[in-house]
Write a structure and sequence with these properties.
Elements (H helix, E strand, L loop, with lengths): L12 E8 L3 H18 L6 E10 L10 E3 L2 E3 L2 E9 L6 H6 L6 E9 L2 E8 L4 E13 L13 H6 L1 E5 L46 E11 L5 H25 L1 H4 L4 H19 L11 H4 L2
Parallel strand pairs: 1-9
Antiparallel strand pairs: 1-10, 2-5, 3-4, 5-6, 6-7, 7-8, 8-10
Organism: Candidula unifasciata
Protein name: Phosphatidylinositol transfer protein N-terminal domain-containing protein
Pfam families: IP_trans
Amino acid sequence: MQNHSIKEFSHSLKEFRVVLPMSVDEYHIGQLWSVAQASKNETGGGEGVEVKVNEPFDETNNAPSPKLRANGIDFTHGQYTHKIYHLSSKVPGFVRILAPKGSLEIHEKAWNAYPYCRTVITNPDFMKDDFYIIIESFHAPDNGNTYNIHGLQGRDLMAREVVKIDIANDKVAPKDYKPEWDPCLVGSPKAGRPPLPRDKTGEWMNKVKPIMCAYKLVKVWFKWFGLQKRMEAFALVQEQRLFLNFHRQVVCWTDEFYGLTMEDIRRLEAEVKEELERQRQEGPVRGMTVSEKDEES
């Protein structure tokens, strides 16, 4: 993998902080379970997720470049995944017009060395080195008030915009809303946790136990004359939408994954990989499509 310089992203960089009513260890299982479930919800009608690789990495096998380092810690092993997202309805219309047929495939490579994870998103067939998104996630047992957990310096630190996502009270687009994915309606009987309060103040983040935060630093590079600013802004809006909806689902699905082990998760991932391949070839398009209103955001 090419070594993408963080300095290139100083003009399009946001840190999203997603506070969740669970422990860091619970989220490790819950995030993987929910990714598998969400992938099924986003796959069908010729579009969706294709899992190419899902295997361990270390310093000699599937090693990331540059090496993983976050919060003053070196991470040398974990799980590596390579997925291809087959898109058409999930990108802006003006990109569909400009992009050659068959080029709307997004590659996602992720090195999950929990509690740190680096995800690199590219379009190697069409945009090549002119587009990528890097998401660095660090998961900590706090309520999202650590000032600089990613260790940003200089121009990047000054340019960073922090966005704290309130999964209980932030506005959800009507087309994304489902009562079964509303953490103010759905609690976890297995974990003994009631639904979150809908109070608009976010005060629940200072009261609920256990508590944790996913610090997600998103860096966008889109080098396309006349569209750079528009596409970088669009990408950040869509990442915020994805983080809000996905983490609402994670909390509402707690009873589904509560008590599972990592061995259970790996078995599930193998089953889902086969199911996704079948599902992608049939049925209707599913998931978060892009409307004209989204493109104007």
